[in-house]
Structures are given as C-alpha cells and as structure tokens.
C-alpha cells in the first residue's frame, strides 16, 4: 500500500483527436508545478493521471501546488493497493474507520475489465464490510446514498486500485498556454484581475499592461497593486510580463483638448491603442478588459461599441454578464480580493467629468479625437514603457526587469 495523488481531468475528454496534445500539455504543467519536490513518477492511467511521490511527506506540498494547475476537475490523495477485492475492501475499511462518519456511501469505477465484478457489486461488497466495521464502534452508523457524511471512492485501473475518502476541486478549464496569447488591460481593481484569470483558465497566456499616473498625497501608487496581482496570477501560467505605461501626460492632453463628457472614453481608446501595439509585439491575438455591461458609465453597450470602433484587434470581455457580487466572489477565490482592497489611485477616475456620456456614438468620439495628435500620444506612451518579467518555479515567483526589445523593434520600424 502506498500514497499517491490521483488527478482527474474533465474537459480534455471532449477534445477528440486533439486529446493527446492537451493531455501532454497538462502533464507538462503538473511537472512544472511540482518542480523541486521529490517525484517518483507521473503516469496516465485510464483517463486519469497518477502522481507518485518518492516521499509521502511531500504529498501535502504537491497538493497545494496542484490546486493552481488548469485542466484538472478534481484531485485526491489516495491509497494505491493491488487490484484485488480483498485488498481494496481492507483499504476502504481502514480509511472509513479513520473518518468515523455517521453515514457513508461507496462510489466505485472499474476501468479494469478483468477485475471480475461490476462497479455496483464492488460498491455493495465494500459497503457491507465498511458498515460492519463502523457499527463495531457506533451501532447507529448507516448507509446514505443521497447525502452521506463521507464517501469512499474506489477506482480500479489496470494493475492497481485507488481508494480515497477526500477529494479537492481542481482549477478546471484547459491547461496553461494552449489557447494563444492575449494582452490584459490591468487596473488595480477587482474586475480586470478576475477577467484575466477567466481567460487564463481557458488556456490563454496573458501579458499585462498597466497604465498609471503619479499618485496624489492622499493615495498610494497603483503600481505595487498591479505587481501584486500579477504575482498572484503567475503561478497559474508560470510566466508573465507586466508592461507599465505612464499615462499622466496623455491624460492632461485629453483634458485640455476634448469635451469633458467624453474624457473617460478617450482615455480608454488611447489605452487600447497603446495596448494594441504591445499586443502586436507580444504576438497576441487580442485584448482583454474587465468590463461588465453597464456597471459604470463607460461600460454601457453604446459606449463599449464606441470604444471598439476602429480598433484593429478584438476585445474580449469575460465579465460582460457578471455583476459586482459575482466578480468579488471570484476575486476572493483566486486571491486578488485583499490586494484590490488596498488604497491606491487609478488613472481613469482622475479628472472625472461631472456628467460622463452614457450613450456616446462612435462618430462623436472620433470627432473629438481630431483635436489630438493620436500617433504622437501613442508614441509617447510607448517610449515610457517599462517591463517586469515574472517566473514561477519550484513554488516561488521571482521578478526581474526586462527590456521590451520586441516592442522597441516594432516601434523603430
């Protein structure tokens, strides 16, 4: 008998002829996640993965890292025993005696045709023995198939059986970096961090662009907040790049030359243009924002349409139909909530108009932009870009300054 981690994927089952590709990327992600820990083997067995440690004491540390691997539906620490009825039942009884539940159920899956009994037969046999073992200590112990206090899962696969009583929800989605690249316009707030996570969960590899202004004496800079958010998100995709773009001078130019009711939309249009140049340097296929329809004035359907008019890359809005409470729940779940609660000054609310447009049209926004030297403002933004590279390895995120060489090459041609 030995302890292993049994890892179940779900959505990859649907990939047909491409399943091998996604499975191989999932296994690579798992190996990267547990790098530095003593691993005996990682193998695929009947639509599940089995991670065997060299030292059982490292199982907990492995499980903590596995929680952030996209592509897994759930995982469990299991007893690995010979695929023989007596061994399986003994292991099941031992695990359930340790839990001492008042009620229980047994769920069996058999992926070994030569096992000699069906899943239902194994459930009945194991259930009978477990019930006898539990009633030896608690005469009121009972079977409850609909809402048990504890469940014993048994999975019979070629050459062995896996028995466990606790399992953890995985991160779900698709393995990291299987869906192409996107650039996330990252503020310090709740929304854009959650939007980034949701797209990363679909296999997207995200680069991040943060626009900042000099903070007022009453508030802190948004830069440390953005950095903390990327630090939290990087373990899900192993590497990240954060582009920091100074936006003060651009904002002041917009304030001086355009109607105040359109300021926020013009800020955001300029951000999208600059982010588009960064996306091209990153070989990204589009932009991601944290917009939720009608949450604020700039996010009405009319204004979103005006914002997107004329952009050369698609804009993805994974939070479009979410309300604030849903977004906050996700932020708590992924670990960015407390970071976004910290006081900081975001650049978009600066010089906020008293009555921002809520039903803007693309043509009036474009007319307002004729007062601006768009090319010069984009160039000024790109000239001030600084880049931080993030890397997750052996359970630690490290940061380093990076030269935006690809951006510079694009900028100079």
What does this structure look like?
This protein is α/β, with parallel strands linked by helices and 413 residues long. The chain has two domains: 2-169, 2-Layer Sandwich (VC0802-like), CATH 3.30.2130; 181-412, HUPs (Rossmann fold). Helices cover 39% and strands 23% of the residues. It contains 14 helices and 16 strands. Helix 3 crosses helix 4 (119-135), helix 8 crosses helix 9 and helix 8 packs across helix 13.
Characteristics:
413 residues; alpha/beta; VC0802-like; Rossmann fold; 9-stranded mixed beta sheet; 7-stranded mixed beta sheet; 39% helix
Quickly describe the structure.
It is built from 14 helices and 16 strands. The chain has 413 residues and is α/β, with parallel strands linked by helices. Strands 1, 2, 3, 4, 5, 6, 7, 8 and 9 form a nine-stranded mixed β-sheet that branches. Strands 14-13-10-11-12-15-16 form a seven-stranded mixed β-sheet, with helices on both faces.
Helix content: 25-40%
Structural class: alpha/beta
CATH top-level class of the largest domain: Alpha Beta
Largest sheet: 9 strands, mixed
Number of helices: 14
Write out the CATH superfamily name of the largest domain. HUPs
β-strand number: 16
Write down the Rg.
27 Å
Q: Choose one word for the global shape.
A: elongated
What is the chain-wise order of helices and strands? EHEEHEHEHEEEEEHEHEHHEHEHHHHEEH
Number of domains: 2
CATH architecture of the largest domain: 3-Layer(aba) Sandwich
């Amino acid at each position: 008998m030995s302890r292993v981690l049994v890892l179940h994927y779900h959505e990859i089952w649907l990939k047909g002829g491409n399943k091998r590709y996604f499975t191989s990327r999932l296994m690579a992600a798992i190996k990267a996640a547990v790098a530095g820990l003593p691993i005996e083997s990682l193998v695929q067995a009947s639509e599940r993965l089995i991670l065997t440690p060299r030292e059982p004491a490292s199982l907990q540390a492995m499980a903590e890292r596995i929680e952030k691997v996209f592509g897994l539906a759930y995982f469990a620490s299991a007893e690995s025993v010979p695929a023989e009825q007596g061994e399986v039942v003994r292991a099941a009884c031992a695990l359930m005696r340790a839990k001492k539940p008042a009620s229980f159920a047994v769920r069996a899956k058999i992926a070994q045709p030569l096992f000699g009994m069906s899943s239902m037969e194994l459930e009945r046999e194991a259930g009978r023995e477990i019930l006898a073992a539990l009633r030896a200590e608690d005469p009121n112990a009972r079977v409850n198939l609909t809402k048990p206090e504890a469940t014993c899962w048994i999975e019979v696969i070629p050459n062995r059986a896996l028995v466990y009583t606790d399992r953890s929800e995985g991160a779900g989605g698709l393995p990291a970096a299987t869906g192409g690249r996107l650039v996330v316009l990252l503020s310090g707030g709740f929304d854009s961090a959650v939007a980034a996570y949701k797209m990363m969960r679909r296999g997207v590899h995200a680069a991040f662009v943060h626009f900042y202004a000099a903070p007022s004496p009453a508030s802190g800079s948004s830069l440390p907040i953005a950095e903390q958010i990327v630090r939290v998100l990087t373990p899900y995709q192993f590497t990240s790049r954060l582009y920091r773009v100074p936006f003060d001078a651009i904002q002041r130019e917009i304030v001086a030359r355009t109607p105040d009711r359109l300021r926020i939309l013009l800020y955001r249009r300029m951000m999208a243009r600059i982010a588009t140049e960064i996306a091209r340097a990153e070989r990204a296929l589009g932009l991601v924002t944290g917009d939720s329809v009608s949450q604020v004035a700039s996010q009405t359907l009319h204004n979103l349409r005006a914002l997107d008019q004329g952009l050369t890359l698609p804009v993805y809005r994974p939070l479009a139909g979410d309300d604030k409470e849903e977004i906050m729940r996700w932020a708590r779940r992924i670990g960015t909530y407390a970071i976004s609660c910290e006081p900081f000054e975001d650049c978009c609310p600066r010089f906020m108009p008293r009555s921002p447009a809520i039903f803007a049209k693309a043509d009036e926004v474009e007319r307002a932009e004729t007062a601006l030297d768009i090319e010069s403002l984009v160039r000024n933004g790109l000239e001030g870009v600084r880049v931080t590279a993030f890397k997750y390895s052996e359970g630690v995120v490290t940061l380093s300054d990076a030269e935006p060489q690809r951006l510079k090459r694009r900028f100079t041609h």
